[in-house]
Amino acid sequence: MSSTPDDDVQTYIRAHRTPFLADLAEWLRIPSVSAEPDRAPDLLRSAEWLAAALKETGFPVAEVWPTKGAPAVFAEWRSDDEDAPTVLVYGHHDVQPAALADGWDGDPFEPVERDGRLYARGAADDKGQVFLHTLGLRAHLAATGRTTPAVHLKFLVEGEEESGSPHFLELIRERADRLACDTAIVSDTGMWAEDTPTVCTGMRGLVDGEVVLHGPDQDIHSGSFGGAVPNPATEAARLVAALHDDDRRVAIPGFYDGVVELTERERRLLAELRFDEAAWLRTAKSHAALGERGHSTLERIWARPTAEVNGIHSGYGGPGGKTIVPSRAEVKFSFRLVAGQDTAAVQRLFTDWVAERLPDGVRHEIRFWGGGTRPCLTPLDHPALRSLVRAMGRAFGQEIRFTREGGSGPAADLQDVLGVPVLFLGISVPSDGWHSVNEKVELDLLFKGVETAAHLWTDLAEDWRAGPWPAAPRPAS
Amino acid sequence: MSSTPDDDVQTYIRAHRTPFLADLAEWLRIPSVSAEPDRAPDLLRSAEWLAAALKETGFPVAEVWPTKGAPAVFAEWRSDDEDAPTVLVYGHHDVQPAALADGWDGDPFEPVERDGRLYARGAADDKGQVFLHTLGLRAHLAATGRTTPAVHLKFLVEGEEESGSPHFLELIRERADRLACDTAIVSDTGMWAEDTPTVCTGMRGLVDGEVVLHGPDQDIHSGSFGGAVPNPATEAARLVAALHDDDRRVAIPGFYDGVVELTERERRLLAELRFDEAAWLRTAKSHAALGERGHSTLERIWARPTAEVNGIHSGYGGPGGKTIVPSRAEVKFSFRLVAGQDTAAVQRLFTDWVAERLPDGVRHEIRFWGGGTRPCLTPLDHPALRSLVRAMGRAFGQEIRFTREGGSGPAADLQDVLGVPVLFLGISVPSDGWHSVNEKVELDLLFKGVETAAHLWTDLAEDWRAGPWPAAPRPAS
Question: Which BP terms from GO are recorded (chains A, B) (predicted)?
């Protein structure tokens, strides 16, 4: 009985498991903490290490791209099938700060394999999930007998993701020609649970900023003047309170215009995920669920837009009391957006809404932190998503379910600048301890990720030949 | 043609004007700043100076009363008319901080007479208004030919009013026997304007404290959890916003129960005061008037209860943004109360109202800063008030109008502990610069005050003989 491609992939991976883990450990030993300025040499060392490893894997092109901050790594390996699609894999090689003193069981930069897990800062976020592609690609070539990948492959691995990707947009705009592709695969997310492989289909967008209200020119006596002049603390509170109606829907007129609602199938699929709300609340350090009426917690954090207040500050805040009417109030706000919403439109709606709600005698300023981050969403029937689900299904031998990501990230920049759909291939699980102590990756899942990557290029190339992919959503002008 | 009592008073005052001002200047040179701990010796010196001056005036009893803070001065001079009422005069001998460097035209503790004004820290607040009684009393005796005052006179001049009177309540509770009286006259307020002599008829009460809301156990990520768990900043804002309805009335059920409404006569008298709202707004450093619908600015600050927020603090307040759901929120609040409202009842109503409005998952604490200060109000037809108005009318030769005080003060403690109606005799005007630079007193008005004080004991004793005074309001049990 001849071996199947799946068998061949598994055999190859098993045979190369030990040196792969040794190489990954070597990379994890480089403390590439982007938040710490004196780690700049480590960031460079990490980038150079990765570029060398990609060359070693077979990439004809592997370059360290400097930025105004930490360097990124770019690599390219064209398929000998000229008609194949071009796929860009995104990840990052910087890591969160970590120190033994934070409560780690051992040196966070000395990887330890124990009980089927690899412990180290960056094991899951994101070096492990970037590095799985090297073995995946070798297995892909070995199992298919190819000398080049089945797709034109590009890698972009940035060095500032843990610091908010401050130079990423500039980088991809400047290098857009070399980054041109047909789809981008973000290799920096997770799945639902150890026993529930999932694919993330989108991230929410973000519009954030602050409103500053000015009332009296200085703090004034509340006994002499209070109740007869506007109080900016009260006005800030009325503004924030008015953001939501009694159903906890965002009450800004037009806010929901264009929102892509969940389909019946999506709602059903979400509802089928085994969701333990009590456990989720423990993770959220919260004591009750509360949100838009008519939607479940998962719908609220993944598929519904929100308005949140991140801070309010006005007047006296010291011990005891001080009978003043404060001079000013500051509100920090953030909106999460979903597919169909436009960042600029939300900024406009909010700006107008605030201006209409303030009484005479209260001057205000609104500042937004940049133009915002757009939401991204890949429809469940997108052919590239189907390819990814098929590859993952081959690796996991289980039905692949769907999640979304409530946060916002550079995926939207890839979508917008490169004009391509974004897919998410992640094998990390919530217990992996991202940004926390004792970060780890489950080795079983890491190698399922390797296996998925080995199948993915074959499946994408095959599905691509069946017909062109729908265009990615473009930013509103 | 024989001289009238009014002529005699004026003659006496003119004759003793120069030494009176020299004595006052000597007292003003003592920098009795209660807020500055190293001024404690000056506070004692100031108290001893005043006790000596009162003895010099004729008081058989003049004592320095120590407290846990700065000392007070007590003096007593019984009338030879045993049936006369007992009157307690209240004032304070401590002053606000002052330094040449703050922008004074000269040393704030070196009094200067210029253009009919006496400039010095404490000239109006409150040494000038306390000391006017010494010459007033001498003129009273000289013009009536009496050897004792027409009423049993007591003086209580505290030393910590500018520091919030922290030991005043304790002092008057402990010394209630010696302070027993039929009415208290607060000599620490002002009148409407240079050309509009007025009597203040009440002060508002105060209930203040803080509400602390607890949401998530720590700040959490707004992308991952926002919109699905309660946000204490939002809940604090909803609470504050709900304090007022769209008419800017306090929306706590029962809050207005028992409020003594302005009579038609009082509203008319208020409306007749020449009020320049634009000028008032400049004093308030505010850019518009806003308050309870259906009431004028003066009604709002004098005769209507209010709810004010003195501070709100929650979440991130630094530069830029931070996408969190805050863990907690603090609201500092103060209610001003008017006659008919009870401090304990308002505390109960607010406590219940807050508890009912918070969603599951938000725990809260309410703290009040003590039991609150009760409002005090003397009805326009109270016989003692009529005596004061008559005495003042004799001095000023003009119709005396009525004001109230929006703030809250120790007057309420006198009312509550001693169980007497409180009257306000003040000759200071808004331009006197209380708590500000270049504090002064208008000498014309100061001597009208002396003249009022000279008539007041005669008028009070005469009116007292016409019948007993109504009881003072008592605190609710």
Answer: proteolysis
Pair A243, B234: CB distance under 8 Å = yes
Q: How far is B229 from chain A (nearest CA, A)?
A: 5
Q: Does A209 contact B316 at a Cβ distance shorter than 8 Å?
A: no
Measure B388 CA to nearest chain A CA, in Å: 24
Tell me which chain B residues have a C-beta less than 8 angstroms from the C-beta of A304. 227
Determine whether the interchain pair B225/A300 forms a contact, defined as Cβ–Cβ distance below 8 Å: no
| Per-run averaged pLDDT (10 residues), chain A, 477 residues | 81 97 98 94 98 98 97 98 96 94 95 98 97 98 97 98 90 97 95 95 94 95 93 98 98 97 93 93 95 97 97 94 93 96 97 97 96 90 94 96 90 91 94 90 98 97 86 50
Q: Which of B368, B386, B412 lies at the terminal end of a domain, its last residue?
A: B368
Same domain, B197 and B243: no
User: How close does chain A come to B241, measured CA to CA in Å?
Assistant: 5
Whether residue B327 is found in the same domain as residue B379: no
Model ipTM value: 0.88
A244 contacts in chain B (CB < 8 Å): 234
Point out the residue among A286, A321, A406 whose CB comes nearest to the CB of B310.
A321
Nearest by CB to B237, which of A312, A321, A405? A312
Domain range for B344 is 205-259+305-368
Domain count, chain B: 2
Q: Give the one of A227, A233, A281 whose C-beta lies nearest to B312's C-beta.
A: A233
- Chain B residues within an 8 Å CB radius of A284: 216, 220, 224-225, 228-229
Q: How far is B270 from chain A (nearest CA, A)?
A: 15
